[in-house]
Amino acid sequence: MSKKNKGGNKTAGPKARWQKKVAGKEKLELFFRHLENLEIDLSDNELTVESYPPTQAYEHMEFEQTLSRVFDLEDEDCVPLKRAVEDLVAAIQDAMMEVPTDYMPNRCDRCYHADCCHMGRIHLSEEERIRIIEHLGEPDNEETYDRYFEADDDIAGFYKTMFKHVKPDEPKDEDDTQCVFLRKMFNGHMGCSIYEVRPKVCRDYGAAYCDEFSVLTPEADGD
Ligand code: SF4
Ligand code: SF4
Prior knowledge:
Elements: H1 14-22, H2 26-34, E1 35-41, E2 46-51, E3 67-72, H3 79-97, E4 123-124, H4 126-136, H5 142-148, E5 149-151, E6 161-163, E7 165-166, E8 178-179, E9 182-184, E10 190-192, H6 200-204
Antiparallel strand pairs: 1-2, 2-3, 4-6, 5-6, 7-8, 9-10
Bound molecules: iron/sulfur cluster (2 copies).
């Protein structure tokens, strides 16, 4: 069990802190309660909001559709909105870089399931894909591609390829899939079979970001 569940003193996560910030601010509370989709595209200076209609404001009507509006952040009427969006993006970035309170540097060494390798849409660059193919000693053709990879665009449209996902031997539920390169190792733990050439996203992700609650082997002294 991770340390997060032991002391009961876990600090509030970003969502809880955000809820605390808007508590009592009626308009904001209403906005978040009805928010269905919020897209921020700072490269195009655009903000798109979709929300469920606040039915208490329109008790006599029934809505099936969501409300949708696109804001042009370059518009001079949108200057305060743009500032608020920039603050929001900065707050999200800070929250994402926050080290979890249950951080254990050696956790990955003691992790049985490697749940991070079950996450969907793990992208890699073309250089990383070729490095993996060369490492495997397989030809760079369609058959090899279909065995290990799938085509996809990430949100920013930078990556074109992601790892293929397959059913694990012991799925946790019917939707559970894992990276095609995840294998059971000699010690019974799940591990990466292309560890030396795994892509940057896998190298960068580790115990500092892990919120995956994998089952760990018992703690050794000094962990
Ligand atoms: S990041 Fe988390 S889930 Fe992934 S191997 Fe490390 S402890 Fe396990
Ligand atoms: S390449 Fe290795 S580390 Fe990355 S998701 Fe697949 S099994 Fe996990």
